[in-house]
What does this fold into?
Amino acid sequence: MVTWALLWAQLFNGLVLGALLVLVAMGLTIVFGTLGIVNFAHGALYMIGAYAGYVAFLHTQSFILAMVSGAAVVLLIGVILERGLIRHYYARPPEDQILVTFGLAIVLIEIVRLIFGGISRRTDEPIWGNGVVNLGLLYYPRYQVEVLGIVTLVLIALYLVLYRTKIGLIVRAGIEDPLMVNILGINVTRTFLLVFGLGAMAAGFAGVINAPIVSVDPDMGAPILIQCFVVIVIGGVGSFWGAVAGGLIAGETLSLTTMVAPDYAQVMLFAAMAFILIVRPQGLFGVKTRQ
Amino acid sequence: MSLLEIDAINTYYGEAHVLFDISLHVEQNEVVALLGRNGAGKTTTLKTIMGVLAPQSGAIRVNGEPVQGLAPYQIARRGVQLVPEERRIIGALTVEENLELAALSAPQRWSLSRIYQIFPRLGERRKNHGNELSGGEQQMLAIARALIRDAKLILLDEPFEGLAPLIVRDLLKVCRLLADEGRTIIIVEQNVAAALSLAQRCYVLNNGHMVWEGTGAALKADPDIMQTHLGI
It folds into this structure.
């Protein structure tokens, strides 16, 4: 029986899940848009962020430090991966790129499993996230409200970088036509490093803040990666607002379907994607890109 | 020393040999036309100069400095700027953002107001996105991107293609202004009359081979070449 209270709770759950999907999908969509690489290791980077945050929190008991170090660790890993591996694949066929990132995901997951074992772990909520808040319509876990706030702040920061800075100008242009950006005197490969690093960092950061909500295990990145692909297809590749809209639609679709028919939640997500593919193949905010 | 010297370059698209021992030179303040039928290798020559395609052999020198094998951005920073046939305006950016993007890495740039003086239409549409512009406006913006970088050598690839005669007239006026100012230009154009009205010298390409070079006047006086290689 669906009650108003349940409906509101699920709507809010969908919002929090959607916000996290937006954050993870943002890196994936911008990396794909600019570099043309479908990064199957993106989910693994999210997972590493969660573990980095877990370890930092275990040793310092400071969630702020956990967020900073989780993001920093994954940024560093992202930069190393881009320089050492990914950049050699920019000019290679898509199947090579998929194979290398897919293989990379397996390697990263197994390294984490080797170090931490397969059992799932849990990061405690920060002290400032304990308890519930009265949202008027319902009482809701304080930490999840805060997650929503944190993600919103991070997205505003990302928006400002993309739309108010020179780097953002290059990234937005690079999503559409990296060759022309190159012809206009800009070293796109250097920008690519930054894009890949920031994309990885966003995923890692999402892993840290989601760790108290879900359990942390080596395979936690796989489901979110698949959901993020759906987010990108719905929103449109390389689009900031596409990732936002796609993430929220995916989050609410999963959450509201779970309320009435949990078994069909994933099915509905793919049905939503199929519907968008039929009516607007480039996605809600997609632009036509140049090959 | 020539501003641009090309010495016997050979360029391939994958396995296909497209340019055969092409040599040409462009002097400071000169407008040179590159003519020929479709598929003659004109666009390939411009792309090779810009570094979009790397020649397998031969040399390209800008101000005496070899540039073959460099990335497009490195060649652009030496003052060469391709205005591509497809225009390649960034549709998601506004007119002003497209211009700012072009100016980012330029050692010395023009002000936006100087650009809008030459192209008042771009000034009116400066807040519009690239994908909202007409073909003529996109071509203006494509040329303006080279100007805002204060490019020393502008490679114009079919700038008048597919545009209404009135717009061609306006663009031609701008090109003439640039030529009179002493800007160095290589123009590739199917519209031979328009190209010859701008260029002092021209080269004729056929099937990837250089078949003729000389002044515009000499070309006009040679009906054989006009007929055989340009179909006029």
About this structure: Chain B is about 35% helix and 25% strand. The beta strands of chain B are 4-13, 16-26, 31-35, 57-62, 65-66, 80-83, 153-157, 184-188, 201-206, 209-215.
